[in-house]
Every structure is written in structure tokens, then in C-alpha cells.
Amino acid sequence: MTERPVVAVVGPTATGKSELGVALAQRIGGEIINADSMQLYRGMDVGTAKLPPDERGAIVHHLLDVWPIGKSAAVAEYQVMARERIGDIQARGRVPILVGGSGLYLRGALDRLEFPGESPEIRARLYGELAAAGPGPLHTRLAALDPAAASAILPSNGRRIVRALEVIELTGRPFTATMPGFDSVYACTQIGLGRADLDDRVERRVHRMMAAGLLDEVRGLLPAGLRHSPTAGKALGYAQLLDCLDDSGEVRGDLTQAVEQTIRATRRFVRRQRSWFGRDPRIHWLDAAVPDLVDRAARLLPPTL
Predict the structure, then answer these.
(1) For the residues 293-305, what does the mean pLDDT come to?
(2) Which of 136, 209, 268, 273 has its CA 20 to 30 A from that of 151?
(3) Which pTM does this prediction carry?
């Protein structure tokens, strides 16, 4: 059997990727593979905008809720899992549809991308610096060594900053130099969603998450180790609310300020996502605000679908 093409729905946060993915899957016989790094974690539902089961349109979703809260994210591990799912879906005559805004995860799944090795000694030293001084000085160092990498990594994301500096020290090259050209493993159509009103949508989305119980979700994940998780505990919204809670879940900080910080941080993240995806010439961009979005997206797909 000829392999079915792969489809990817990509772009910044709050553009409606999940909903478009479901609509396309219903139209072309697809199954969805999650490509949002935080939706891999069990229990992180409200704050990651994970589609609840009753909104998934009876479409099979893969790679949701696969990692425990305490696990450190590993793109190389995700690459293996995603490619296994792609192969299985294709073997059953269905269409794999990757949906998400985690650019490195998407490239890891779709492209000829090999991840550099690791050095426990270098990593331990860098984590020691992170613990002693916080991520700020390390991000400043990264900006001097590799401005492109620094612009793509949140200054608060100590884990990713450490990994970038580790790769630079190991290879003697900028972290971004380890990224190959845009060469996909699969016959793939990538559809990018953008819209002009993202700042307002981000603000409304954060307030909806708070109304939907994000604070209680964060409280409920404290016993699972959210506060000390190297990845999940740094997620947008979760990190800001953790700063307001003590270990018993009691509010000790300013929630209004935490919400505003989440909105600002998410808007900065959107700008980084735009920059990341904007460099990929293979992406077909659509305005997510148009009423006939699904039809326009479907017209971009190969005629065999």
C-alpha cells in the first residue's frame, strides 16, 4: 500500500489549530497526533487548552496524557513516539494529522533531524549555575553565543536554555546550527494558522482558563510534583500560579498579577512561535478568522485525500 500523506496543522497559540485538525480528520479519514509539548502531560488539561473528549468529534487522538508530571520533556523521545504513530496510522489506511504549536517537536517528528548527544558533566554544571543564579544570566550568555536560539527560547525556560548551552559547548557551534534544512521524512502538507487579533484572543483565553478551574488544576497537581517538575512546572499559566500558592495549595500571592503575567508571557510566546514557523517555507498560511477556513484548508491537501 502506498503510504498516505501526512498533514500538519501548525502555528501560534490560540489560533484554533485543534478545531481545524478535528474538522480535517472528519473530512479525510484522519487521526490526530498531538504536537503540543505540554499536552503530553497527564492532568494538564485546562491550562494547555486540551480538547475534552466530547469535543474531539469521535476522532482518535494520539500522544495526549502520555507523560507523568515529573518527567523532563525529551524531544528525541517524542520523535520516536510520533513516528511510530504515523507509521501505524498509515498502515491502517488512515491519514496522520499532527496538530500543535511546539515547533521543535513538529520538526523532530516530520524532518530529517538528529539530536546532538548529551554530556552529564556539562549539564550538571549548567544546572548548578541555573539553581544559583536563575535563568537570566544563562539566557544572556546564550544571546551572546547564539542570538537566534535565544530569541526562540523564553528567558524563563531554564531547561531549554541549559540544553542549548550544552549543545553549543559539546559541538562548538551555535545551537541553531545543529538544525538541518527543511527536509521532511514524509510527503507532508503543512497548514499554518494565523490571525490579526491574537493579543485579544490570548487575554480572553487566559481569563476563560481561570474561570474553567485552572487554579484548582494547579492545586490538584501539587502532589504529583508540579512545583519541582523541570518541564511541566514551567508551563505558561502553571508557573505563574505556582508562584501564588504555598505547598498546601493556599493562595499566598496576588492572583490578579499572576493572570496578567500569564497574558504577557503568552503574548511573548506567540511572537516566538510566529518567528519559528515563519522561517519554514513549506507552510501554507491561512487566516484562521475566515468563515470558510475548513474548505480553504482542504483545498491545500493532495488530491489523493
Answers:
(1) 95
(2) 209
(3) 0.87
For residues 269 and 138, give the distance between their C-alpha atoms in angstroms, rounded to a whole number.
19
Both 86 and 198 in one domain: the answer is yes
Of 142, 161, 178, the one marking the end of a domain is 178
Specify the 3-state DSSP secondary structure of 20.
helix
Q: Please tell me whether residues 156 and 193 are part of one structural domain.
A: no
Q: pLDDT tens-digit profile of 132-155? A: 999 999 999 999 999 988 887 888
Query: CATH number of the domain that 125 lies in?
Result: 1.10.20.140
Tally the residues of the chain. Answer: 305
- Number of domains the chain is built from: 2
The separation between the first and the last C-alpha atoms of the chain, rounded to the nearest angstrom, is: 15
Question: Distance between CA 81 and CA 28 in Å, rounded?
Answer: 23
Question: What is residue 1's predicted lDDT score, i.e. its pLDDT?
Answer: 37
Residue range(s) defining the domain that contains residue 82: 6-114+180-299
Q: CA 275, CA 25: separation in Å to the nearest integer?
A: 27
Q: How far apart are CA 165 and CA 34, in angstroms?
A: 28
**Same domain (yes/no): 51, 140:** no
- Give the CATH number, domain containing residue 72: 3.40.50.300
Give residue-wise pLDDT tens across range 9-21: 999 999 999 999 9
